[in-house]
Every structure is written in structure tokens, then in C-alpha cells.
Amino acid sequence: METPNEQEHSKHSALEHWLIAGLIILVAALAFGLGRLSTLEEAKVPVTIDYFSSSTPAAAASAPIPKSAPASDTSAGTAAKSGNANATGSIVASKSGTTYYYASCSNRISDANKIYFDTAAAAEAAGFRLAKTCTP
User: Fold this and answer.
1) What strands, in cross-sheet order, belong to the sheet with 114-117?
2) Shortest CA distance to 92 belongs to which of 112, 74, 64?
């Protein structure tokens, strides 16, 4: 038969074992959570803002349109003067694809395969449709 002192010691020993097990589980859970948080930070895409070289709308309208359709389209010039960003050749599509994207939408088109349009109507006239992941 155990003495009261031995019973007290066995209760105290069992409590210590439970506390140690709980502490190990807590540390493991915290480490797992921190690992998950670190991968979320790596997955974020940085935001980039492109500026025109000139701050005046008139100068931006007269600026050359990079890799765009022929410059004879006068609707692009009037749309650029009104502040429409899509009229400056910022609609892009792939030579081998069927969808087009606005500049604000992410896409995975390689630079060698990119073709540019002044307007969404021009892209649609060329047989492209707006990508489902891209909203104007």
C-alpha cells in the first residue's frame, strides 16, 4: 500500500507529464502556423504602376502607341484624349491564343507572342474574346 506521500508524488508526476505533452503540442501547432504564414507572404504578386512620360493628357495623346495597330485609326487618338487607358495599346493578346487582356489583368503571355490593340473592338474584330479572368 502506498503512503500518502507516494500518492502525492504520483499525482504530481502525472500532471507534469500532461503539461509537457500539452506544451509540445502547442509548440508544434505554432511552428506549423508560422510556416503557413511565411508561404502566404511569398505568394503575393507585387503591384506595379506604369506612368506616362508626360503628365499632360494632350502630350499623352500625341505619344506614340507601342506595338499597336496602324496609326491611321483616329478613334484611338480621341479615346486617349478622353482618358481611356485601353486606347493606348494596352490591350494585349497572344499570337496563338483566342483571348485578350486589359493592362490591369494578369496574363502569362511571353513578350515574343504579344500583340497589342488600341481598343477592345479591334481585338474582337481580329477574332479575340475577353478573357474570363479579366474584367474591364
Assistant:
1) 114-117, 91-94, 99-101, 129-130
2) 112
